Amino acid sequence: MGKKKKDIIQLERESVIPIQKPKIISSLANLLEQTSDRADFLRLCQRIEYTIRAWYLLQFEDMMQLYTLFDPIHGAQKLEQQNLTPEEVDEFEIKFLMYLFQVMDKSNFRITTDDEIEVALSAQYRLNLPIVVDESMLDKRLLTTYFTKHPHDNLPYFADKYIIFRRGIGIDHTTGYFFKSKVNTIIVRAWRCFLKVTGLKRVFFRKSRPQFKNDKKESIEISTEAEQDDLYVERIRVENMKLSIFSKLLSKITIQEPTFDRIIVVYRRANTKKENKRGIYVKHFKNIPMADLEIVLPEKRNPGLTPMDWVKFLVSAVIGLVTVISSLSMPKADIRVIFAILSAVIGYCVKTYFSFQRNLFTYQSLITQSVYDKQLDSGRGTLLHLCDEVIQQEVKEVILSFFMLMKWGKATRQDLDVWCEELIKKEFNESCNFDVDDAVQKLEKLGIVAQDSKGSYACVDLKRANEIIGTTTEEVVLTAKQGDSTL
């Protein structure tokens, strides 16, 4: 992910298929002309899912069992019951992380890199305060040990303390008047112009970060353009708009910001002298604006006045003091002038303080929203969700690939990749970077696709595919349950 020009975010197309599995199956079945073919296809889809689910069952069970030892709530009690040595606990936690990272990869989650973090935070959306992580509250040993044994490329600078996984891209947009933000932007532009003219820009220049209000939302069209495997999404902010009294200043505007559709944060809290904490936190968030990514950071410090705010206080106090002393040193000091100067200085300091309080209230509201609205789950719930995501994605890839081979006959991997992406675009109006390699691997493992000497792949017919996979345990159980219900 990179930034193009000034307000354009460059995004890579991801391998995740955004369509629900039932919709894919029903839509593809309706494309088949023969009723018998539709029945065989639906049966095959069911057997494919049951088989893939069985493949992952043991791995997922191992991961969930290991997590019971590192659950932040009950994990310590489970560890005591196991009577494990410290070396065994270390081995188990590394094994758990290995399973977790494998599931993340299969679910098409990616570790955020420094470049992605820089691009995401290069603008501002609703968060107006500098957010800092209290590193003394985070453990550094766990992830450092894991990445030493299992190296990864392009790890972020904070990878020894916590890891942020991301998947999917969305758009958050808000429509409103944003009158205060517009006025602040105009004032900042005038101030910058003054500093530039007077030559004080290098001393006092500071990037403006106006505040956005969370007003009524409405949908707008997003202009994106595809370029090979990438697309571009525009950031629309008040700071970059042309503001005039007769156009946008007194009318509603729409701002927009790309979002991370899913965010998962993994970390461990630091140990204290009294207790050795081994709990591993896994938190799952949704629809996080890129510019407000700080709200998902673990162990955040309470924000305070920024260094620039303190500079404003001190400069205002010095200017006021110098002006008052100069006025008092004059032969005829005007008390009204002195009072006006002091009132202006005090008023400016009060304004700065209340601006900070307003930003702090907005920050607290965003944190509350991230907990109640944007946090999907944590711990065991997140892991169960990830396990199901892996299965759903694999099933969708296999079904789409088999359907295209069944419809068009032989194909190379490259052709099959293009066909599946075109089908997704045509039938569902969605785009993704289809993972054809993983799909073909699963089809070969199922035994319903074979490769010839020229490198092309061909599938067996529907009836033969059902015979090869055979009756699954789930089908036997369902048949037995139906038999019991008729008694």
Q: Which structural class fits the helix and strand makeup?
A: alpha+beta
Q: Mean pLDDT score, rounded?
A: 80
| Rg result | 29 Å
Order of strands in the sheet with most strands: 3-4-7-8-9
Q: Ends: how far apart? A: 60 Å
Query: Main β-sheet: number of strands, strand sense, barrel status?
Result: 5 strands, antiparallel
Helix content: 40-55%
- Number of continuous helical runs: 15
Secondary-structure element series: EEHHHHEHHEHHEEEEHHEHHHEEHH
**Strand elements, count:** 11
Protein name: Aminopeptidase
Organism: Quercus rubra
InterPro entries: DUF3754
Keywords: Membrane, Transmembrane, Transmembrane helix
Can you offer a commentary on this structure?
- The chain crosses the membrane at residues 310-329, 335-354.
- InterPro entries: DUF3754 (IPR022227).
- This is Aminopeptidase.
- Keywords: Membrane, Transmembrane, Transmembrane helix.
- The chain has 487 residues and is α+β, with helices and mostly antiparallel strands.
- Helix content is 52%, strand content 14%.
- The strands form 3 sheets. The protein has a 5-stranded antiparallel beta sheet with strand order 3-4-7-8-9. Strands 1-2-6-5 form a 4-stranded antiparallel beta sheet. The protein has a two-stranded antiparallel ribbon with strand order 10-11.
- Helix 9 (307-329) runs antiparallel to helix 10 and helix 11 crosses helix 13 (436-446).
- The longest helix has 38 residues, at 335-372.
